[in-house]
Amino acid sequence: MSHPTVQELREQVVTCTRLLVFTEILDYSGHVSARIPGEDLMLIQPRDASRATLAPADLLVVDFDGTVVEGTGIPVVEWPIHAGAYRARADVAVVLHGHPTLSTTFSMVDRPLVPMRHFFYKYPDGLAIHPDSTHIVTLEQGDALAKTLGTADACLIRSHGTLLVARRIQELFMDALDLEENARTLITASQLGNILPIQHEEAAAIGASYGRTGHRPNKVWEHYLQKGRAVGVI
Q: Which of 208, 203, 183, 181 is nearest to 195 (CA)?
């Protein structure tokens, strides 16, 4: 599979960012980045740029030590979140850090964010919670967060937010929506009675059924892409 060009990555990061604002996963804060293939470099937005009007030319090229090698501006303060994930995981191509309310709530209660909706089958035991609730602003903190993430695609950051990683932008966007929707469902179900989360055996069967086609990330992406275009978000 060929890698996207740097320009294509710029457009993908911007489109994903705007759509995540549109779907209220991101607001004035939070950020998406992409690894430049074959380099220890990432595309990430400037600190003060609005997520709602971000443009491809706004993105900075930043190395994994936080040095800007292309572009004008200061990177987002929590760039070490992204650098830590890329440094720890060669399979990670895109990273999202956000502060969605419902899923973040599960970092503050004694209840795991277990799978309720079948699309959350990847997390039969819930998500790991990183204990550092401060801003992640040093490489040491970023590396520690990556250790909490481990081999998973998502984790929670206590009283702070979420970290998601993926191999392509469509998966990252879909997983961000799924995470918040599963949290919403779990909260609602808890108000109705005893919860009946998806069990390990069910999760394995669901994963196998999704793996037969692998079309869902593209389907979700295309739907929101057209929805965003219809209302002028992108």
A: 183
Strand-by-strand arrangement of the 94-98 sheet:
68-70, 60-63, 41-44, 31-35, 94-98, 161-166, 154-157, 129-130
Largest CA distance in the chain: 54
**Which H or E run contains 164?**
strand 161-166
Residues whose CB falls within 8 Å of the CB of residue 193, separated by 6 or more in sequence, listed in order: none
CATH number of 6-225: 3.40.225.10
Please give the model's pTM, rounded to 2 decimal places: 0.96
Query: 143-179, pLDDT tens digit by residue?
Result: 999 999 999 999 999 999 999 999 999 999 999 999 9
Token pair belonging to 187: 């909260």
In tens, the pLDDT along 59-69 reads: 999 999 999 99
List the domain boundaries for the chain: 6-225
Pair of tokens at residue 177 = 């929506």
Query: Is 118 in a helix, a strand, or coil?
Result: helix
